[in-house]
């Protein structure tokens, strides 16, 4: 039996992959505790999860960045307004949790850098949870790379071991990547400590009602969802998507996730909901239009569905490129796509067999990769190895 | 990818016209009707270029100027803030300087 401490930021997409891993570790007789924002972790992982609180600061400022803030400008704000202050905020909570729980192994999300920094400082074995493959596969321009390194160095001075050279985004012993090389491409170079375990998709609680009786078996169905990004940024894209769906009412039904209620009720073949039970809905669908958030992309491909991707920012452009290169979808420009672009792309992914075939190829690789079971096995191996080193 | 070019000229107006043509090729069917491309136009905020667009731009520049203009090396020399603010004019001036260096032998 080993004790695993999971360090997570207050970001749903970063907690979700570890929910299944935590359940699997408990199933195998291990002790698991979390460090993060307790209400959020318990909402996703269950009421009985042990969660040590870590104040993460205000994440809404970055979540609600305006639509125009994209590319490298968005990356700069992501680091200065979210990743760096969040690590500073979380450090005391993470430290207190380590002292109280006394873990054998820490599992640190790539964006919760306080975890990796403190594990290094205190000499604890740790693994990285890479909920999106972008940090593993992106070759940043040298100017961007060195700017990021400066931010990490500053954090290491304040809360880590100033003498260490370890990057808190990459454990030297084990990096769990919740995807497979069928999606990332097999020609990318990653460190030998990286393990592609595939998506960790568990049975998540139904979070929303859905009018299942409205789904029409005679028409093909697409989900149009831009995740939890801020409503002002997504309204235009949802509006043109609804127009594209309306123009295809005889053969198409669209389910549109519209958190702000801006769309109203555009027509009989467009089902508009503020949120949907996505995992329950996907088996009924034929394609997905999304912002290339890694969770939605993986859940769609898990069900073998082709994609239309309109990346907004952060890792989404990179994930969208991977979808396109794998042949499983079509990329649109988020701020400029019209109803014609969206409609044409939907027609193509529905009608051209190659998109289905690529999506199903990735689906098979995902289901063969082992997911949370494989992740738990790698973590057990790390724990045993460290134990052998300590006692030998 | 079917732009027809005149012989190389180290002239800012000529180069601006060529670069603007490449930008329109990259934006393709997404080119806004009222798009004006001048020296002050920024790749990030004004043109909403994404990483893949810069890669496409590098291909166009290479097709036109060959080894004379090394766009990848130019980007590699920049700080993050400079990449964010990069304007069409800066790229044009860089290209003109590269062409002049070759002309000067």
From TrEMBL, chain A:
<protein>
    <submittedName>
        <fullName>Glycosyl transferase</fullName>
    </submittedName>
</protein>
<dbReference type="GO" id="GO:0017000">
    <property type="term" value="P:antibiotic biosynthetic process"/>
</dbReference>
<dbReference type="InterPro" id="IPR050426">
    <property type="entry name" value="Glycosyltransferase_28"/>
</dbReference>
<dbReference type="GO" id="GO:0008194">
    <property type="term" value="F:UDP-glycosyltransferase activity"/>
</dbReference>
<keyword id="KW-0808">Transferase</keyword>
<dbReference type="Pfam" id="PF00201">
    <property type="entry name" value="UDPGT"/>
</dbReference>
<dbReference type="InterPro" id="IPR002213">
    <property type="entry name" value="UDP_glucos_trans"/>
</dbReference>
Automatic annotation (TrEMBL), chain B:
<dbReference type="InterPro" id="IPR036736">
    <property type="entry name" value="ACP-like_sf"/>
</dbReference>
<protein>
    <recommendedName>
        <fullName>Acyl carrier protein</fullName>
    </recommendedName>
</protein>
């Amino acid at each position: 039996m080993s004790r695993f401490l999971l360090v997570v930021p207050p970001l749903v997409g970063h907690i979700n992959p570890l929910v299944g891993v935590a359940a699997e570790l408990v199933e195998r007789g291990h002790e698991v505790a979390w460090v993060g924002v307790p209400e959020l972790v318990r909402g996703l992982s269950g009421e009985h999860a042990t969660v040590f609180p870590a104040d993460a600061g205000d994440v809404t400022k970055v979540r609600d960045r305006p639509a125009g803030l994209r590319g490298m400008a968005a990356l700069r704000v992501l680091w200065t307004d979210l990743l760096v202050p969040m690590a500073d905020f979380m450090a005391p909570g993470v430290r207190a949790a380590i002292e109280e729980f006394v873990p054998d192994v820490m599992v640190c999300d790539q964006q919760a850098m306080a975890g990796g920094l403190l594990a290094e400082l205190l000499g604890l074995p740790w693994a990285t949870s890479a909920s999106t493959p972008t940090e593993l596969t992106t070759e940043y321009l040298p100017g961007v790379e060195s700017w990021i390194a400066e931010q990490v160095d500053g954090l290491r001075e304040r809360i880590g071991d100033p003498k260490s050279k370890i990057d808190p985004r990459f454990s030297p012993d084990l990096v769990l990547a919740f995807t497979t090389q069928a999606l990332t491409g097999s020609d990318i170079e990653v460190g030998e400590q990286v393990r592609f375990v595939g998506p960790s998709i568990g049975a998540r609680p139904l979070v929303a009602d859905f009018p299942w009786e409205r789904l029409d078996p005679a028409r093909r169905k697409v989900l149009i969802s831009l995740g939890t990004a801020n409503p002002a940024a997504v309204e235009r894209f949802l509006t043109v998507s609804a127009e594209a769906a309306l123009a295809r009412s005889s053969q198409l039904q669209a389910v549109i996730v519209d958190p702000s209620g801006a769309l109203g009720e555009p027509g009989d073949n467009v089902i508009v909901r503020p949120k949907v039970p996505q995992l329950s809905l996907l088996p009924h669908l034929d394609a997905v239009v999304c912002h290339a958030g890694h969770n939605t992309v993986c859940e769609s491909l898990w069900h073998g569905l082709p994609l239309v991707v309109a990346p907004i920012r952060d890792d989404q452009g990179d994930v969208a490129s991977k979808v396109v290169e794998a042949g499983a979808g079509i990329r649109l420009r988020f701020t400029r796509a019209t109803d014609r672009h969206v409609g044409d792309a939907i027609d193509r992914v529905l009608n051209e067999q190659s998109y289905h075939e690529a999506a199903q190829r990735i689906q098979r690789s995902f289901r063969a990769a082992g997911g949370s079971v494989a992740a738990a096995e790698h973590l057990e191996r790390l724990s045993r190895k460290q134990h052998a080193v300590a006692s030998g | 990818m079917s732009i027809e070019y005149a012989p190389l000229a180290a002239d800012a107006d000529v180069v601006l016209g060529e670069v603007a043509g490449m930008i329109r090729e990259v934006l393709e069917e997404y080119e806004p009707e009222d798009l004006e491309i001048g020296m002050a136009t920024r790749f990030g905020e004004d043109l909403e270029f994404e990483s893949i667009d810069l890669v496409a731009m590098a291909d166009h520049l290479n097709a036109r100027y060959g080894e004379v203009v090394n766009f990848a090396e130019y980007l590699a020399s920049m700080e993050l803030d400079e990449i964010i603010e990069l304007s069409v004019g800066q790229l044009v001036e860089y290209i003109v300087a590269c062409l002049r260096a070759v002309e000067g032998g």
